[in-house]
Amino acid sequence: MHVGKAFRKSLCFMLALLFVAAGTPTAQVGTAKAAEVGIEADVTAKSLSASTASNVFPLSQNWNIQSSAIATASGSKISTSGFATSGWFGTTVPNTVLGALVNAGNIKDPYIGQNMAYIDESRFTVPWWYRTEFTLPASEAGKKIAVNFQGINYKADIWLNGKQIANSTDTIGSFRSYELDITDNVTADGSTKNTLAVQVTRPDYVKDLTIYWVDWVPRPADNNMGIWRDVLIKTSDTVKTRNPFVTSTVDANLAAAHLNAYVELSNTSKADVTGSVYATIKDPSGAAVTSISKTVTVKASAKDQEVSFLGINVASPQLWWPINMGDHPLYTVDFSFNANGKVSDRVVQKFGIREVSTEMNVSPSNSVDPPLKDMVQFYINHKPVLIKAGGYSPTDLLLRRDQNANNAVVQYVKDMGLNTIRDEGKFNDDQLLQLLDENGILFMAGWVCCDRWQQPASFTDNEAKIAGASLYSQLRELRVHPSMIAWLNGSDNPPSYGNMDGQPPGSTVARGKFIEQMYLDLEHQMHWEDFSAIISSASAKVAELTGTVGGMHMDATYDYAPPAMYFEDMKLGGAFGFTSEAGPGPSLPVTETLKKILPASALWPYNVGGDNYQQWNYHASREAFGKLDVFQKALDSHYGSSTNLEEFNIKAQVQQYDAQRAQFEAVNANKYTKASGWIQWMLNNSFPSLYWNLFDFYLNPNGSYFGVKKANEPVHIMFDYGSKEVKILNSTKDAYSGLTASVKVYNIDSTKVYDKAFNNLNVSPDGASPAVGGTPKKVGYETINFGGKIKTASGITIVNKLNEDSLNLSPTYFIRLELRDASNQLISVNTYAQTKKKDLVRYQNHDWNYTPQDQYADFTELQSLNPVDLQLVSSKIVTTGSQQTLTYTVKNNGSSLAFAVFAKIKKGTGGDLVAPVKMEDNYFVLLPGEQRTLTAEYAVSDLNGAAPVISLNCYNNIMTKKNPTPTTLDLAKGKKTAVSSTESSSFPAKNAVDDSVFTEWQSNSKDTSGNDPQWLSVDLGASKTINRTITRWGFENYAQEIKIQVSDDNKTWQTVATATNPYGSTMSDIAFNTVTKRYVKIVMSGKRPGAPQVGSGGSGQGFTGLNAVPAAKSFKIGAFEVYGSN
């Protein structure tokens, strides 16, 4: 402990040293009919505001990079003007080494196919040089000049004009910022070139406190080495002003706010300097709110000496609110230090006036392992906010900045009705945070899981120094943003988590407590508890330091789960408490993206082994999520086997839509009383992925996107899978009255079997009653109430309870909900495909990554929907500045209901998709004869000069199997079985005919007894009239060749059907001519082939390749079902 105390003292000292013209849209539709219409154009202008800075010179252009294995000269020579850089690669900064090489065309696009796996990593095992030349204007001569590095990954030796100004012993840590005094080594005369050279060494991906991508994507081949954040030259007089910061509290009646304003001063001289600090606060219009000053003496050589202005009162403040709760105005604070009759330095910062507070309320879960009773409730300006979020990933794995992508992310978040993003340990782009501030999107950030950051119990003193400096650097930057709602000191574990399982040797709880206390001390030093929330971790694990949890959990699902689970399960997996990361797993992009990232030869089918399998899996996630097994098993059983990519993809879009809609509808329906937040895992991808996104890498929205958008409509009508109630949900601050709700039910043939209207409905604004009860607890430097309970949520109106059992329903049917306002304008329309055979979740086998199912809902009857003629009735374009709005009307001219109707906007006929694009609705239902008028918004520049083309299609028009028979009574369930072989007593034959598809029979995997063919037979107990079998396979253990045989005596067998499974389906639905027999046998041959190794291989996190997949050695059957007329 003596070492620890000495270290803490040195840490504080160390921290003090830190620092297009509109065209005519054409139409492509699912059937032959198309339409073209004329355009009317309107043009207006729109501008965006930007931040300002003084005496700051970004060094972003004219950089070159080269490997130190090639550029072998010394740093003193490389940092000399005129040094020859022929053969070097030009780049801008920020950029990683790999990003620069890809931009230069030296490395193939790593996002296509498996290119990333075959990049020569040996190139990055040596340091790389970054070099630039710059001039400074003569106006800066005589000033103090510093160079600021906001992020270097991982360590660096830095040279300027032939002299080393920093070494890699001190310049280490991905998330630290550095400000180096270069006054004596730089020339400012407007013409002399100064040369800056930085030699960067990459991190050890798992062992260093660095950028880590967990199981999200392949590891970048260079480990993201490079100058990955901005480099700035800053000039001043003797005293520098840095790190402006304003905290605010707001009166409960919102009539006044009370501000504390801070600025840090650094004295570059060896003598005390006395002067005046001036602070001017201006409101969003630029009008002065207050101007104040104080005289201070800045000690000789002082670093980051804090000056505070406390208790600044603002009457009638313009408060900053999250989206849907109010506006997002930004004030400015202008600090300057004046001495000897002149301004030494000045800094201006935007800020928002808002107060963040939390309490730990009681969730409905009675789980004690993990402990899930506490849920954190966030308040902004004393109003409760339901956190609806996505887990954010930088839009590029190589960390190349893209302001257009940032804009798209923020606009998509708003369009989907989300109000928050969570950043787990990336922090790469301040411009994104500015957009969040301006748009009222909340931001939650903290350290990443699963790498060295999650092992503070074994941090060395040097690692603790790096971690503390990293925290200080990040919080100093984040604390100026009103969007910043919470900092998480850990992701999957709090720093002082008591369980040492899986921790490195030498880990101790005492060390974890020391690190967590260090974090809390630093956060207190930075007034963080006066600004935003501090959460110990995103999990439900207890922090030993405080004896408390952070009020969040991650115990729902990361893989596919059916809609009902989110409503039903109030213990482990449903929409309760504050879920920090969860979601239905795979989220396939549209076919256009699949065709872009996968070789044409591997596009279809997927689950057949070989190169196809590995090409798809390379774009899955990693570890437990390295394949689409859970998702595809549900997909095949829900909708039937697919015979081509388009069919597979539309079924995937529908399954994704329904799951995403359900999770957010459940959260909204449970708001405040049962749930306080849900963070969908994830919002987006940094690499083209089949997992964890709401829109793809190329910014194309998919079914997941539109499911979330539907659920989060500001005023929304929904069907509750659990209670069977129809509800109106209001997420706005306004009340609505005189509403009319319509509830209708249609059978598969579009026959209406239920129709009821509900008039004069009212819905209150979003809100909640105050929490009652609880006990205050000291957590770090603040006191938080634990154990309170919100008893009533407002903004929820129950319309009706639908008794489906009383209706004469087809096996698949549709619930159509509509909500109209007092003027009869449609404000919400929502259609659900439902089935008599429901999804049944096997809660007793819930695991951290998913909850299995006993039974899948049967939507196969959707395949019988007749093709329809989708007509583009009209379209119109309006251009407003750089944006274009396309309004179009689509009509169903068919006699069948049109299911999952979707439109795509393309860049000319046969062109690529326009992206980003905000579409009003997609994957919706049109009744026979129904039409809808919708809009799509996009940038004119994204048309690339082409005319927009509207492509229309729907589920009906893509299906290839048109006449499936819905399942009724399974004649094989619970009957006696016999098999050719069994792997073990854990996989008996009876599992194939029990009540659950989760339990499986497995044939023997040995070469002798497991050889093909294998068989399983069922004794129906008596002769039955039968004409169909369904086999639900283990994902990788299906048969390629199948025979169905029947017998009267279990001796003489007649083959009634033969079938193949060429597409790797996990469900074989085989129909045959009706026979009356007692025994049924399935004979299986042809096991799934293996798949090759990709690159250097790898099976978990931190690899660029994939291990080979062995061929299947056995068959697995979760259910063998037999159907007929009795």
Automatic annotation (TrEMBL):
Gene3D superfamilies linked to this entry: Galactose-binding domain-like (2.60.120.260), Glycosidases (3.20.20.80), Immunoglobulins (2.60.40.10)
Q: Name one GO molecular function term.
A: hydrolase activity, hydrolyzing O-glycosyl compounds
Xref: InterPro entries: Beta-gal/glucu_dom_sf (IPR036156), Beta-mannosidase-like_N2 (IPR054593), EBDG/EBM (IPR043534), FA58C (IPR000421), Galactose-bd-like_sf (IPR008979), GH (IPR017853), Ig-like_fold (IPR013783), Ig-like_GH2 (IPR006102)
Q: Which UniProt keywords apply?
A: Glycosidase, Hydrolase, Signal
Q: Does the keyword Ribonucleoprotein apply?
A: no
What is the residue range of the signal peptide feature?
1-27
- Pfam families from the entry? F5_F8_type_C, Glyco_hydro_2, Glyco_hydro_2_N2, Ig_GlcNase
Per the record, the GO terms for biological process are: carbohydrate metabolic process
Q: Which residues form a coiled coil?
A: none
Domain F5/8 type C, chain residue ranges per copy: 964-1082
Family (UniProt): Belongs to the glycosyl hydrolase 2 family.
This chain belongs to the protein called F5/8 type C domain-containing protein
